[in-house]
Amino acid sequence: MKRLLLAATAAAGLLLSSASAWSADKLLNASYDVARELFVAINKAYVAEHPGVTIDQSHAGTSKQARAIVEGLAADVVTFNQVTDIDFLVKNGLVTDDWQKDFPNNASPFYSLPSFLVRSGNPKNIKDWDDLVRDDVQVIFPNPKTSGNARYTYLAATAYAKEKFNNDDAKVKEFITKIFDHVPVFDTGGRAATTTFVERELGDVLITFESETYGVRKEFGEGNFEQVTPSVSLLAEFPVAIVDKVADANGSRDLAKSYLEFLYSPAGQKIEAENGLRVHDEKVLAEFKANFPDVRLVTVEDVFGGWDKVQAEHFASGALLDQIYGNR
Description:
There is one protein chain. It contains 16 helices and 13 strands. It is an alpha/beta fold. The strands form 4 sheets. The chain has a 4-stranded mixed beta sheet with strand order 2-1-3-11. Helix 2 (36-49) links the parallel strand 1 (26-31) and strand 2 (54-59). Mean pLDDT is 92; it is low at 7-22.
């Protein structure tokens, strides 16, 4: 299974990269958990345009990746799925605080949203967030304490509940708690959750990035799984940054900048769209329009007041997520 085998090969590649001498022709990209297939294709295309360059990959939940970089993982660039994880690198002196000005769209070359994947025929008739609190539905998504992917799921469900219950905090908390109660196992990352749903055949619905639901359906066959786009979801941006301290030490800054700029190029945008990600290039977006259902997207800024407020009210120790997650 290509998508699942890539998890092991990424780890092997990281071991090789750490044993090699760094140079201006080599860099390590630390990325999010379900981006393996995307960056296999991106790296192949980039190296074809820049012969002699070596790009190594590391994949895990981005919060885990950020901690690993602080602890010594020598990543020249990060391609994450959550702003707060890059801000964590800023606070630890690894990335400059104006990193979002280095690249277009607040340094987010593409975007996605939490989406549903159900089994063939959608036997539980799952259409929207309301269906996830039904007693006959089991939900699969990773642990939001370790996975940026799952944090978007948590925030998207919360945004839906805030609308549904007119910002009644008690009812919103009850709604999200019911969803958490229906998760039989919390994996540490998005790809492990996909394995649980697809290979272990647990759960009635997988919630993950739309790009992952697209990829699973494409690989395992449209007759086996169906994508379901909820009525409302949360804009999931994928921020990128040069890890300044590492790139300067390795002499790889020019390569790092060129590599991240490639993600915005027409060639890069096409690869991203082919991998189920929504892009900003209008021509590429038009070419792949049929792959992306219409959906009303809300933002962290509009619903929650920005990432700083989300971090304090939802993700800090003892905050709302901890209260809901408890000792699961």
